[in-house]
Design goal:
Elements lengths: L1 H17 L5 H19 L9 H13 L4 E7 L5 E13 L11 E3 L2 E3 L19 E6 L5 E6 L3 E4 L10
Antiparallel strand pairs: 1-2, 1-7, 2-5, 3-4, 5-6
């Protein structure tokens, strides 16, 4: 905490010595940092001992890795589900990548910036996308990729397709 405070004071001193005034954005950022330091010193962070949510996320990822029969439904604006197909897995966001879709930007040969990391399943997942690829059963033992943009509901068990939420 002392190091952070010293760093903040040093940056402020540099602005004063260089004749640059502190902008409103810089002042707001400094205020937020000071509040965060106070929050952690007075309250602290949650004491997590069982890591249940982490275990759940791991279990879900492992289960998604299995070939599992699912049932895909379109969810309309009224919350009603309409059966699309018997499917395999839970669908894949349309813009999921096998390779990193981003590159470092270069400034005179120096790389800077942050690159996304692979998920544990080896894929680069999109931040936000509505389109989904679904592997639908063709009824003859094969599967066909189906592209969908509406909101979907995918379940490992059949559900009444006319039932509301």
């Amino acid at each position: 905490m002392y190091t952070v405070l010293r760093l903040v004071l040093s940056v402020g001193l540099l602005f004063v010595l260089s004749g640059c005034g502190e902008t409103a954005t810089e002042k707001a950022s400094e205020d937020v940092q000071q509040l965060a330091q106070r929050l952690y010193s007075e309250i602290g962070t949650p004491e997590i001992n069982n890591f249940q949510e982490y275990k759940f996320a791991k279990q879900i990822m492992e289960m998604r890795d299995e070939r599992i029969t699912t049932y895909t439904y379109h969810v309309d604006r009224n919350g009603n589900r309409h059966f699309i197909c018997k499917s395999i897995g839970y669908g894949l966001p349309y813009s999921t990548q096998l390779t990193n879709p981003k590159q470092f930007q270069s400034n005179f040969g120096d790389a800077y910036g942050k690159l996304p990391q692979r998920e544990p399943n080896g894929l680069y997942m999109p931040d936000n996308v509505n389109a989904t690829w679904i592997l639908c059963s063709d009824g003859d033992g094969g599967i066909e990729p189906v592209y969908s943009e509406p909101k979907l509901f995918v379940s490992p068990v059949p559900i009444d397709s006319l039932a509301g939420r």
